[in-house]
Amino acid sequence: MILIDGKKIAAELREELKQEVSELKTKYNKVPGLTVILVGDMAPSQIYVRNKEKSANEVGLKSEVIKYPDTVEEKTILEKIEELNNDESISGILVQLPLPKHIDKQKVIETIIPSKDVDGFHPMNVGNLSSGYESSVPCTPLGCYLMIKKIEPNLSGKKAVVVGRSNLNGKPMTQLLLKENCTVTITHSRTKDLKAECLEADIIVAAVGIPELVKGDWVKKDAIVIDVGINKTENGLVGDVAFDEVSKNAKALTPVPGGVGPMTIACLLKNTIDCFKRAQI
Length: 281
Ligand code: GUN
Hints:
This protein is of the alpha/beta class.
């Protein structure tokens, strides 16, 4: 079984991106800038944002985190986004989710100009991705896609099963696999016979938020299994895949942690650099 080392693949990607930033700096005399907006003091969001900032600095991006208390008015956030939309030194804007209930998440997402939407959440980017046009692609599915391609460069005709239908993961993952000519089945918590669906799959991406849902006898020999889940349980942090069981069957599997997580952050840096490059034309 191949343990897909997300940490290592992400470190290699960051190294490539660092080189690219250095070349862009020489060519344009400026570097891509990423601004992250963080509302409130939820511990997981703070940790994510700290990691994003650290990685951004490591590859040589200009990076800024703007923090607001969770009592901040929606208007304040929207006005800040407008200001960043018009700031030429900023290539990418990310508003860390979740947001407090009194702030309309969709309004925030739609206020970010699509060309700086490094999360790929704006309806225009969602539409472009599903139409097969150039767009920002959400960082987590992009990271999953790059890891799958490392294991199997030619995905044409493969059967892929995506478990989970969220806008963040399941739906964009499906689009990326379709683009590679996979036959994709989207499943979710209400799917009748999830085991039978998974047993058909050459590739399984589990992104449903149910601890250790995908069992060893759900997985075909030689399947590639990507585990997007991060679930806190009494037994510590576990994914959506029963790791020990599945590792006995699968050809390749991502661990939790150390699989998808590091790739998500590296892909955010990649998206920021791609937004910068598109803005130079
Ligand atoms: N919170 C958890 N994951 C994400 C993500 O990919 N983007 C944003 N903006 N917030 C998140």
